[in-house]
Amino acid sequence: MNVQDVKMKLEKLPDHIIPKVIDYIKFLLNKYCRNIIDNSKFKFDWEGGLPKLKNDYTSVELQHKALEWRECTQQNDIEHE
Question: What residue segments make up the domains of the chain, in order of their start?
Fold first, then answer.
């Protein structure tokens, strides 16, 4: 089964089921993508890359923003497949 097969099956589902499918996809991404991230070394090559934001956010707020941005990116990737 490939992405096109999944899209065809998704299009056959009733509209009220689509949010459940998206929730399940998010669950799978969270479960399996986290393992990929956990197995790689974290790089700090981004350090100092957000100087314009340092006056607007605390480090904790930036962590929350980064999580939001990653989730949005993942959601956009899913929608454009």
Answer: 1-41, 50-81
